Amino acid sequence: MACYQLIIAQDTVLFINGKMLVGKVIEYKPKYISIEVTQGKRLKQKKLDAKEVFSVKGKDGAPIIIYQQDIANGQTYTADQMRRFIMGEQFAMKRYYSPWITLGGIVTGAGGGALGFYSLPFPALYTFIMGTHTPTLKKYKDLPDEFKSDPFFKEGFSNKASNRKANNALISGYSASIATLIVLVLFR
Q1: Domain spanning 2-67 has what CATH number?
Q2: How confident is the model at residue 107 (pLDDT cuts 50, 70, 90)?
Q3: Would you say 87 and 41 are in contact if contact means Cβ atoms under 8 Å apart?
Q4: Which helix (H) or strand (E) holds 11?
Q5: Where are the domains of the chain?
Protein backbone atom coordinates (compact mmCIF):
# COMPACT_ATOMS: atom_id res chain seq x y z
CA MET A 1 0.00 0.00 0.00
CA ALA A 2 2.87 2.41 0.75
CA CYS A 3 4.18 2.02 -2.80
CA TYR A 4 0.72 2.87 -4.16
CA GLN A 5 0.59 6.04 -2.04
CA LEU A 6 3.96 7.15 -3.37
CA ILE A 7 2.74 6.80 -6.93
CA ILE A 8 -0.43 8.81 -6.26
CA ALA A 9 1.24 11.55 -4.20
CA GLN A 10 3.17 13.28 -6.94
CA ASP A 11 1.68 16.78 -7.24
CA THR A 12 1.82 19.51 -4.59
CA VAL A 13 -0.85 22.22 -4.50
CA LEU A 14 0.18 25.47 -2.79
CA PHE A 15 -2.76 27.50 -1.53
CA ILE A 16 -2.83 31.28 -1.14
CA ASN A 17 -3.12 30.82 2.64
CA GLY A 18 0.29 29.08 2.67
CA LYS A 19 -0.98 25.54 3.21
CA MET A 20 -0.11 22.66 0.91
CA LEU A 21 -1.91 19.55 -0.30
CA VAL A 22 -0.16 16.56 -1.85
CA GLY A 23 -1.96 14.26 -4.26
CA LYS A 24 -2.51 13.63 -7.94
CA VAL A 25 -4.10 16.43 -9.94
CA ILE A 26 -6.75 14.87 -12.16
CA GLU A 27 -8.23 17.89 -13.90
CA TYR A 28 -7.52 21.61 -14.42
CA LYS A 29 -10.43 23.92 -15.12
CA PRO A 30 -10.52 27.72 -14.97
CA LYS A 31 -12.79 27.62 -11.89
CA TYR A 32 -11.58 24.48 -10.10
CA ILE A 33 -8.88 21.86 -9.81
CA SER A 34 -9.69 18.21 -9.06
CA ILE A 35 -7.12 16.33 -7.01
CA GLU A 36 -7.01 12.79 -5.68
CA VAL A 37 -5.53 12.48 -2.18
CA THR A 38 -5.03 9.62 0.24
CA GLN A 39 -6.80 9.86 3.57
CA GLY A 40 -5.87 6.93 5.73
CA LYS A 41 -6.13 3.93 3.44
CA ARG A 42 -8.68 5.44 1.07
CA LEU A 43 -8.40 7.62 -1.99
CA LYS A 44 -10.59 10.69 -1.96
CA GLN A 45 -11.23 13.16 -4.76
CA LYS A 46 -11.39 16.84 -3.83
CA LYS A 47 -12.51 19.80 -5.90
CA LEU A 48 -10.48 22.92 -5.13
CA ASP A 49 -11.57 26.45 -5.94
CA ALA A 50 -8.95 27.80 -8.36
CA LYS A 51 -9.11 31.23 -6.68
CA GLU A 52 -7.67 29.67 -3.50
CA VAL A 53 -4.74 28.00 -5.30
CA PHE A 54 -1.45 29.75 -6.01
CA SER A 55 0.44 27.00 -7.83
CA VAL A 56 0.69 23.29 -8.58
CA LYS A 57 4.09 21.64 -8.58
CA GLY A 58 4.21 18.49 -10.68
CA LYS A 59 6.43 15.47 -10.28
CA ASP A 60 9.09 17.20 -12.39
CA GLY A 61 9.34 19.96 -9.75
CA ALA A 62 8.36 22.84 -12.00
CA PRO A 63 5.49 24.89 -10.54
CA ILE A 64 2.53 25.90 -12.69
CA ILE A 65 1.24 29.26 -11.43
CA ILE A 66 -2.57 29.19 -11.18
CA TYR A 67 -2.90 32.55 -9.40
CA GLN A 68 -3.73 35.52 -11.57
CA GLN A 69 -3.78 39.13 -10.53
CA ASP A 70 -7.38 40.36 -10.64
CA ILE A 71 -7.82 43.79 -9.09
CA ALA A 72 -11.61 43.69 -9.57
CA ASN A 73 -11.83 40.61 -7.29
CA GLY A 74 -9.38 41.82 -4.63
CA GLN A 75 -6.33 39.94 -5.88
CA THR A 76 -4.10 43.00 -6.18
CA TYR A 77 -0.69 41.32 -5.96
CA THR A 78 1.30 40.18 -8.95
CA ALA A 79 2.27 36.49 -8.98
CA ASP A 80 5.78 37.28 -7.66
CA GLN A 81 4.42 39.52 -4.88
CA MET A 82 1.91 36.82 -3.89
CA ARG A 83 4.67 34.20 -3.85
CA ARG A 84 6.64 36.33 -1.36
CA PHE A 85 3.48 36.96 0.71
CA ILE A 86 2.88 33.19 0.91
CA MET A 87 6.51 32.64 1.92
CA GLY A 88 5.89 35.03 4.84
CA GLU A 89 2.74 33.12 5.81
CA GLN A 90 4.61 29.81 5.70
CA PHE A 91 7.42 31.24 7.81
CA ALA A 92 4.87 32.34 10.43
CA MET A 93 3.16 28.92 10.39
CA LYS A 94 6.50 27.24 10.94
CA ARG A 95 8.26 29.60 13.36
CA TYR A 96 5.78 31.92 15.13
CA TYR A 97 4.64 30.83 18.56
CA SER A 98 2.78 32.86 21.15
CA PRO A 99 2.95 31.02 24.49
CA TRP A 100 2.63 34.20 26.56
CA ILE A 101 -0.52 35.20 24.68
CA THR A 102 -1.97 31.74 25.37
CA LEU A 103 -1.03 31.96 29.05
CA GLY A 104 -2.55 35.44 29.24
CA GLY A 105 -5.76 34.10 27.68
CA ILE A 106 -5.91 31.33 30.28
CA VAL A 107 -5.36 33.75 33.17
CA THR A 108 -7.89 36.24 31.78
CA GLY A 109 -10.46 33.53 31.09
CA ALA A 110 -10.03 31.83 34.47
CA GLY A 111 -10.11 35.14 36.33
CA GLY A 112 -13.14 36.32 34.40
CA GLY A 113 -14.82 32.94 34.80
CA ALA A 114 -15.04 33.58 38.54
CA LEU A 115 -17.54 36.33 37.71
CA GLY A 116 -19.97 33.80 36.23
CA PHE A 117 -22.09 34.91 33.30
CA TYR A 118 -20.33 38.29 33.21
CA SER A 119 -17.06 36.60 32.26
CA LEU A 120 -17.96 36.29 28.57
CA PRO A 121 -16.48 39.63 27.40
CA PHE A 122 -13.09 39.17 29.13
CA PRO A 123 -11.43 36.77 26.64
CA ALA A 124 -12.70 38.83 23.69
CA LEU A 125 -11.46 42.04 25.30
CA TYR A 126 -8.06 40.46 25.99
CA THR A 127 -7.85 39.30 22.36
CA PHE A 128 -8.73 42.79 21.13
CA ILE A 129 -6.07 44.40 23.33
CA MET A 130 -3.40 41.90 22.29
CA GLY A 131 -4.44 42.30 18.63
CA THR A 132 -3.34 45.93 18.63
CA HIS A 133 0.31 44.77 18.58
CA THR A 134 1.39 43.34 15.22
CA PRO A 135 4.13 40.67 15.38
CA THR A 136 7.40 41.62 13.70
CA LEU A 137 10.40 39.76 12.28
CA LYS A 138 12.99 41.43 14.56
CA LYS A 139 13.54 38.41 16.83
CA TYR A 140 14.42 36.06 13.95
CA LYS A 141 18.18 36.64 13.70
CA ASP A 142 18.72 33.75 11.27
CA LEU A 143 16.29 35.19 8.70
CA PRO A 144 18.16 36.86 5.80
CA ASP A 145 17.79 40.65 5.60
CA GLU A 146 16.24 40.40 2.13
CA PHE A 147 13.16 38.83 3.72
CA LYS A 148 13.09 41.21 6.69
CA SER A 149 12.97 44.17 4.31
CA ASP A 150 10.53 42.65 1.80
CA PRO A 151 7.13 44.31 2.38
CA PHE A 152 5.17 41.37 0.94
CA PHE A 153 7.01 38.77 3.05
CA LYS A 154 6.51 40.96 6.14
CA GLU A 155 2.81 41.40 5.40
CA GLY A 156 2.30 37.65 4.93
CA PHE A 157 4.14 36.96 8.18
CA SER A 158 2.21 39.63 10.11
CA ASN A 159 -1.11 38.45 8.71
CA LYS A 160 -0.61 34.79 9.66
CA ALA A 161 1.11 35.52 13.00
CA SER A 162 -1.67 37.94 14.04
CA ASN A 163 -4.32 35.36 13.19
CA ARG A 164 -2.48 32.68 15.17
CA LYS A 165 -2.07 35.04 18.13
CA ALA A 166 -5.77 35.99 18.12
CA ASN A 167 -6.88 32.36 17.82
CA ASN A 168 -4.62 31.31 20.71
CA ALA A 169 -5.93 34.13 22.91
CA LEU A 170 -9.60 33.42 22.15
CA ILE A 171 -9.42 29.64 22.43
CA SER A 172 -7.37 29.63 25.64
CA GLY A 173 -9.43 32.44 27.18
CA TYR A 174 -12.83 30.91 26.51
CA SER A 175 -11.62 27.41 27.41
CA ALA A 176 -10.36 28.63 30.77
CA SER A 177 -13.52 30.67 31.32
CA ILE A 178 -15.79 27.69 30.60
CA ALA A 179 -13.65 25.37 32.74
CA THR A 180 -13.81 27.85 35.64
CA LEU A 181 -17.58 28.16 35.28
CA ILE A 182 -17.97 24.36 35.31
CA VAL A 183 -15.78 24.01 38.41
CA LEU A 184 -17.71 26.76 40.19
CA VAL A 185 -21.07 25.19 39.35
CA LEU A 186 -19.97 21.68 40.37
CA PHE A 187 -18.36 22.70 43.66
CA ARG A 188 -20.85 25.24 44.98
Answers
A1: 2.30.30.100
A2: confident
A3: no
A4: strand 11-15
A5: 2-67, 81-186
